[in-house]
Amino acid sequence: MRYSKIIFFAVLVIATACAKDKEADYVAAQEKTIDTFWASIDGDEYEKTINDDIYRIVRVKGDETQSISPGDMISFYYTGAVLTSSGITNANIFDTNIAAVATTIGLTTTTELKIREDIAGAGHFIDGLEKGLLQMHKGETAWIVFTSRHGYGDKAINIIPAYSPIIFEVYMVDVKKQ
Prior knowledge:
This protein is of the alpha+beta class.
């Protein structure tokens, strides 16, 4: 009986170590995909920032006097995709609230597609998008990119494989201070 407990704990320790090594491999692969995408963006053309492992590429500058704080009511359009080294393509989009994009990719929905209105910083989005939205300004269009650590983690959801880096293209229409 004593040896069976020792064997059980030894197997548990080995299994845990192997799982952590596998996760580290996935994270390294995601970081490589993000680095490739990041390097493909012309540094002079777009403002690029990294904050808390959230990569933000500003495609169109907004009103920098209209930043977003937790609790503000925000209105925005978005497209979410599994990141590839090419960025967003029709093949890797998993969600959008833009009717033309939804039609192009054949996304069917039972709800009307319209501008998303929500409270910033209230935990209504996956972590990476939540943190990325808080870095934006009214009128800004940006790509928000992050690893599965800030996304869906080790869970495969619909067309999103486990351990996938994610990219959102967001157009921040309005910010109402609360």
